[in-house]
Amino acid sequence: MKFILKPLLMVAAMAMGMNAAVSLPAWATLELNVNKGNVEPMPIAIPDFQGELGAQISEIVTADLKRSGLFAPIDKAAFVEKITNPDAAPRYEDWKVINAQALVTGSVGKEADGRIRAQYRLWDIFGNQQLAGEQFFANDANQRRVAHIIADAIYEKITGEKGYFDTRVVFVDESGAKNARKKRLAIMDQDGANVRYLSDGRAIVLTPRFSPNRQEITYMSYESGQPKVYLLQIETGQRELVGNFPGMTFAPRFSPDGQKVIMSLLRDDGNSNIFAMDLRSRSTTRLTDSTAIDTSPSYSPDGSQVVFTSDRGGGSGRSQIYVMGGDGSNPHRISFGDGVYSTPVWSPRGDLIAFTKQSGGEFQIGVMKTDGSGERILSSGFQQEGPTWAPNGRVLMFFRDSGGGPKLVSVDLTGRNEQPIPTANYASDPAWSPLLE
Amino acid sequence: MGRIAALTRNPAMIALVAALAITGCASKKTPNNAADLGLNGAGAATPGSAQDFTVNIGDRIFFDTDSSSIRADAQTTLGRQAQWLNQYRQYAIVIEGHADERGTREYNLALGARRAAATRDFLVSKGVAANRLKTISYGKERPVAVCDDISCWSQNRRAVTTLSGAGS
């Protein structure tokens, strides 16, 4: 099956109905402020969409919204009105009595040319009006994507934030005994569906990361014997080595413009420094030059700064988080809590840095402001690491080993909504794609 | 000394001694401890073989948590390794650096590399030719011990000297 990551040509959105959502006075009545400290999930009613594929699509929409922790889908058994015409205004009173704040109706049909047509309407029950209505066309292979796009639209209309459901995750699929783990690159939808393998498992592969254009990933592989950083075109499977360095290269990430890969390069003395390589000119820039471990670099969204892990501070080799300019200037430590910090990742919104912290025999996933202040731990466990940001900067995914092997977990910025990501095998090193377009 | 008698009855052993005599190396082989004599119950390994190295010399050293310093016990092992490697010069050597699971993946790749380099540098300081030595880090990706407690972690924080090239 051909894997479509290109802009989804077959999906066309058009507003339906008279109302333009953004200009509605009812906005104030149906609003979920995700920036408040304690968000009560919004009760939302999502009856099965009409049409042969309708229920499948609305189930996916429901699952997305539920897993976000911001919505509480109401049990369908409680519904009073049976929706027969998804385009007609509902009987608002029937939905008020079950305390639905929002109602989503929709239908899915097949066009003469074989395409799927999916449409939805979002109703503000206590405002007695339609908030949004759109329809989408897609080919068969993109059924699930249509559902995710609808979920993103609803999420955005109600929270005012971009959604993150129409996204993918690249990760390392792990199988076999712990001392002989087979590790394969794999890619799937953010909800665990549509898994596809990108490597055969003969060589150890680690730390895949998406390019901003979503078409390629950079990762580390032992396929040549020496561990090296590679680029992989997802659709064609074409691979290439990044740079021609003598030693191990590892911990790669793209720059926000996709033009550079920043990574660690092992020096002959056993220490690791950070380099950036321009993918077009092939020129490399050294960003650190220390007799310490400098690794896990991650650019700020504007590319002007880099956050990284280093044990340059000494103290029995404990690693901490540092920030420097995009040219390597002015490196300074920002983590000062009680513990060992690593794997810093800059939020796509620019406001926070996610990290792994080892403290008190535990591994914690947390966030701090970019100056190191305001540290908050979102999740603790015996063994967990490697956060990656959802493109809206509101949810993190990481991997946790509770014994046996690692599995993927997501947690939102409140730390209260932790969700397992289903995978067939053990899974590690998740990296979230940007929003698909 | 029954073990030595048993070894000399082994045709493979006899053949190897003959080969070493030709290269002039055999005279340097002066058994001076129990391990050299193969008295640890695994002495069937042919001197100069990879098995001999692993079993009688010791192919690995261990590190303290988050450290790449060569401990005193490791210095003893590496001293034996250097002596053996200087005697059996037909081998190329790859030193694998490993870390336990109590660190993040990328940091542990760097830590394993640093341990491998420290091991390499120690062997070079004991006279092993630098051009015979390569290093590779496996981070925490290749544990030998797979329980989830301290006894395993200490076995996984290791550098393993592996032999390649002729004779292995």
UniProtKB/TrEMBL annotation, chain A:
GO biological process: cell division; protein import
Pfam families, per database record: PD40 (PF07676), TolB_N (PF04052)
UniProt KW keywords: Cell cycle, Cell division, Periplasm, Signal
Name listed for the protein in its UniProt record: Tol-Pal system protein TolB
InterPro entries in the record: 6-blade_b-propeller_TolB-like, Tol-Pal_TolB, TolB_N, WD40
Presence of keyword Cytoplasm: no
Principal location listed in the UniProt entry: periplasm
Gene expressing this chain: tolB
UniProt region (Disordered), positions on chain: 295-314, 418-437
Assembly information from the UniProt record: The Tol-Pal system is composed of five core proteins: the inner membrane proteins TolA, TolQ and TolR, the periplasmic protein TolB and the outer membrane protein Pal. They form a network linking the inner and outer membranes and the peptidoglycan layer.
Family: Belongs to the TolB family.
Coiled coil: none
Regions of compositional bias (Polar residues) in chain numbering: 295-308
Record-level GO cellular component terms: periplasmic space
Ranges of residues in domain TolB N-terminal: 30-131
Reported function: Part of the Tol-Pal system, which plays a role in outer membrane invagination during cell division and is important for maintaining outer membrane integrity.
Subcellular location: Periplasm
UniProt signal peptide: 1-28
TrEMBL record, chain B:
Highest taxon listed in the record's lineage: Bacteria
Domain OmpA-like intervals: 50-167
Record has Signal as a keyword: yes
One GO CC term, this protein: cell outer membrane
SUPFAM superfamilies cross-referenced by the UniProt entry: OmpA-like
Membrane topology note: Lipid-anchor
Signal sequence coordinates: none
UniProt-listed InterPro entries: Bact_OuterMem_StrucFunc, OMP_bac, OmpA-like, OMPA-like_CS, OmpA-like_sf, Pal, Pal_lipo_C
Main location as per UniProt: membrane
Reported function: Part of the Tol-Pal system, which plays a role in outer membrane invagination during cell division and is important for maintaining outer membrane integrity.
HAMAP family: Pal
Assembly mode: The Tol-Pal system is composed of five core proteins: the inner membrane proteins TolA, TolQ and TolR, the periplasmic protein TolB and the outer membrane protein Pal. They form a network linking the inner and outer membranes and the peptidoglycan layer.
Family: Belongs to the Pal lipoprotein family.
Name of this protein: Peptidoglycan-associated lipoprotein
Organism, scientific name: Mesorhizobium hawassense
